[in-house]
Write a structure and sequence with these properties.
By secondary structure, this protein is of the alpha/beta class. The protein has helices at 3-18, 117-126, 139-151, 170-182, 195-207, 223-229, 260-267, 276-289, 306-310, 315-318, 321-327, 343-365, 385-396, 401-415, 478-494; strands spanning 35-36, 40-47, 56-64, 67-73, 87-89, 93-97, 99-104, 109-110, 113-114, 129-135, 158-164, 187-191, 211-215, 233-235, 292-294, 433-437, 452-456, 459-463, 466-471, 474-477. It has two domains: 19-97 and 426-477, Urease, subunit C, domain 1 (Roll), CATH 2.30.40.10; 99-415, Alpha-Beta Barrel (TIM Barrel).
Length: 496
């Protein structure tokens, strides 16, 4: 064989091993913050889809109005797209579907102090959340905010409104569901209640085409009832280990459920009391009935390290004083139970997480659908940042980063009945997209708007962060959104 042939074969082998060469960096043009275009080309990106498949790239993604119209291999010609007016260079960036947050509360005040919805929205958008499911806000306010988001008159994620149903009798429960339908609710939120009332509510919701999210507590009903009566999602984890107990939890005689210090302290000792065989059977019943699980690991993370939770780095510039006041220990506020929190409490919660995370992983392995939500604004949790922490905790629970992304996109869309329009980078789907500077599969911390501290050439640098968030085809610069948040916080702190 001639030396030339050997050399060419060697070079070919190197190219194959190295993978496809990236196209030359394209020029961004005609793209401005807060604008939607008749046609937008996002060039040279690596696509991480929401369906659990590996990253692919380089790709070009075409958006027309508020829809994705094409996803194709990158056009490598130097003059490609020269006639396009709006081009976004994605060289070196990773493109994902916009995240869906399945458990939020819209807050315009905390601790009786005004806090603008804009504050919450812009943090969520900067953290890649383009769709939220609100579970329990004042319904009139939530519907008004949903309308403004749909119109594009505010910078906000898509909002789906699940309104609280209840009543003292089965008929009152049915009536509350009908009222939710009349008010334009997207779904129903229920708390723990007697079984006959719950049965009436879930039956009425099913008849009216409304999905049901269930936040159980220490009540008559548990996860077995949720599975039997047609609940769509279980929020947090209440009712699941309860269904696997041999009798009642081993509460002390002094326990008072309405005392949140008691409630959260002893919640941290619940999972260890669940019988493993009974728990496995409960998970099987949930999977068979098609009940989804939104574990909200991050909501309670403070319980395993309260000191860390009080001193998170993003609080310095992004914690609104209203929320800061709400976090302070107080028996009068939900989730402000941290007075007297002990080393023993934190050790118990760490063990709680170990068993809880294994249960969620087992549920998924059995075919159960796990979603992602943050329930932020309580217990030292900050909107958006806590959602990204939720993704990290799903990885801690044993989910591959690709599966974590799926929980936050395709799975959440499926649980909300939106899998035909959201959660994937696919033609025909709504143009909700995020572009990340660095590979989030290598480090989910690259998703945080504050980035990741690193060392390059002996100097400290910040890497990562979502650079662009596209919601409904509208392009937003996330650094600009975070600057708006910083300004809002500074103004509120100074009393302006």
């Amino acid at each position: 064989m001639k030396k030339t042939t050997v050399l060419l074969l060697g070079l070919s082998l190197i190219v194959l091993l190295a993978g496809p060469a990236l196209p030359a960096r394209a020029e961004s043009r005609g793209v401005e913050h807060g604008q939607r275009y008749d046609r937008l080309v996002v060039r040279n990106v690596t696509v991480i889809n929401g369906n659990g498949t590996p990253a692919r790239g380089p790709m070009d993604v075409i958006v027309e109005g508020n829809k994705i119209t094409d996803v194709r291999g990158a056009d490598r010609r130097p003059d490609a797209y020269k006639s396009e007016a709006h081009v976004l260079d994605g060289t070196g960036l990773y493109l994902l579907p916009g995240f869906i947050n399945s458990h939020i509360h819209l807050h315009d005040e905390r601790a009786g102090i005004p806090q603008p919805f804009e504050y919450e929205y812009k943090i969520y958008m900067s953290c890649g959340v383009t769709t939220v499911r609100d579970v329990g806000t004042d319904p009139k306010k939530a519907v008004a905010e949903r309308r403004k988001s749909q119109e594009g008159s505010i910078v906000a994620p898509r909002i789906y409104v699940y309104m609280v149903a209840g009543g003292r009798t089965p008929e009152e429960g049915r009536k509350s569901v009908r009222t939710i339908k009349e008010m334009g609710g997207d779904g129903v939120k229920i708390f723990g209640m007697d079984r006959d009332i719950m049965a009436a509510i879930t039956d009425e919701a099913t008849k009216l085409g409304l999905k049901v999210a269930h936040h159980m507590a220490v009540e008559e009903t548990d996860a077995r009832d949720a599975a039997a009566l047609g609940v769509d999602t279980i929020e947090h984890w209440y009712g699941i280990p309860d269904a696997a107990l041999k009798g009642s939890q081993n509460f002390p005689p002094s326990y008072n459920f309405n005392n949140e210090s008691d409630r959260f302290r002893w919640a941290g000792r619940l999972w260890r009391e669940a019988d493993p065989a009974k728990l496995d059977a409960v998970l099987n019943e949930m999977v068979k009935a098609g009940v989804g699980w939104i574990p909200t690991f991050s909501t309670y993370e403070a319980c395993r390290d309260m000191t860390r939770a009080r001193n998170l780095p993003w609080f310095k510039e992004y914690l609104h004083p209203a929320l800061e006041e709400y976090f302070k220990p107080s028996p009068s506020r939900h989730g402000a139970f941290s007075w007297g929190w002990s080393t023993e409490d934190e050790i118990a919660w760490k063990e709680n997480y170990r068993i809880w995370m294994k249960a969620v992983r087992d549920f998924a392995d059995k075919g159960g659908v796990v979603g992602a939500g943050d329930d932020a604004g309580f217990i030292y949790t900050l909107y958006g940042f806590t959602f990204l922490t939720e993704l990290e905790m799903l990885q801690e629970a044993g989910f591959h980063p690709l599966d974590v992304i799926q929980c936050a996109t395709v799975n959440n869309a499926k649980l909300m009945g939106l899998e035909d329009r959201l959660g994937r980078v696919r033609p025909g789907y709504l143009a909700d997209l995020i572009l990340v500077d660095e590979n989030p599969l290598a480090n989910l911390k690259y998703l945080f708007p504050t980035g990741v501290l690193d060392i390059k050439d002996g100097k400290a640098v910040v890497r990562g962060g979502i650079k662009w968030t596209i919601k409904d085809g509208i392009v937003y610069s996330t650094p600009r959104l975070m600057q708006d948040v910083k300004d809002m916080v500074a103004a509120a702190r100074s009393g302006r």
